[in-house]
C-alpha cells in the first residue's frame, strides 16, 4: 500500500463507513457560545459588580511570573459594551497579572454585546456564574461569599430553597449567611477582618446581639482585638442564647452584688497614758503611741484636776 493510500485509510477515506457507524459517532466540534480572540488589554475594564472585592498582590505577582514563563493556559471571558470596548466577566486576576507581566494583548472569549441596563434576574444569573467561577479557582473571602449570596437572593427574587440550590448550598447554609449579612456592623467586621469566620459562631453572636447587645458587643470587640476567638467560645455563646430565650439563669454569670447597708460608725477609742499641759488653758493627753488629743480647759482647771483624772484614768493619775 502506498503512503498516500495509507494516509487516506487512516483518515477514513480508504473505506466506506456504514450509516449506523456515522450516526453513532459524535461530532468533534459543536456550536460554540463565544469566540476566542486576542484582545487589547487597554480596551478591557473590570466589572464593578463582580463578587470579588479584594485582590491579593502577592498572588497576582506569582501569576504574572507564571504567565511570563509558561504563557496563558486559560482565557478570560469578556462581553462587548461598545465599539472596541469590553468588560470582564471572569478572570480579573489573570487580566491584572497580564498587565503586571507587561503584556499588550490577552486571550479572551468574547461574548456578544451586553446592554448597559440589565434586569435584576439577568444580573443575578451573571453574579451566580461569577461566584461559581471564583469558587473553582481562587475562592472568595468569607465576607465576599456572604455578600454575593445575599445579593443573589435579592436580585433573583427567588425563595431561599431555590436560591440555595442555584448557589450549590444547603438551605441552612444560605440562611446562616443571610443572618450574618443582615446582622450588626460590629459582627460583620469580624468576618471582614477574618478574625471569626465560623458561620455557627457568628450566628450565635447575632442572636446574642438581639438578646444582650452589651455582652455581644463586648465579645465582638474582644475577638477583633485578639484577631481570633478563644477556645470554647462557640459553646458558651450557644448556651447563653438558649438560656436567655428560655428565661433561665445565664451560664457562667456572676450573681449581682448586694448593696451593703450603711453601718453606724463605731466611736473612736482613745486609751490615755500621759497627761501634759501643752500651754496655758490647753491640756494634752497622749496614748503612748505618739497620738495625742488636746482639750481646752477653764482657768479653774486645777480645781477640776481630780475630776478630769477620774474621767480619763478611772481615778488613777
From TrEMBL:
Family: Belongs to the ParB family.
Region of interest: Disordered: 1-26, 247-272
InterPro entries noted in UniProt: Chromosome_partition/occlusion (IPR050336), ParB/RepB/Spo0J (IPR004437), ParB/Sulfiredoxin_sf (IPR036086), ParB_N (IPR003115)
Pfam families, alphabetized: ParB_N
SUPFAM superfamilies reported in the protein's UniProt record: KorB DNA-binding domain-like, ParB/Sulfiredoxin
Annotated protein name in UniProt: Chromosome partitioning protein, ParB family
Lineage: Bacteria, Pseudomonadati, Pseudomonadota, Gammaproteobacteria, Pseudomonadales
Record field: compositional bias (Basic and acidic residues): 14-25, 247-261
Domain ParB-like N-terminal intervals: 37-127
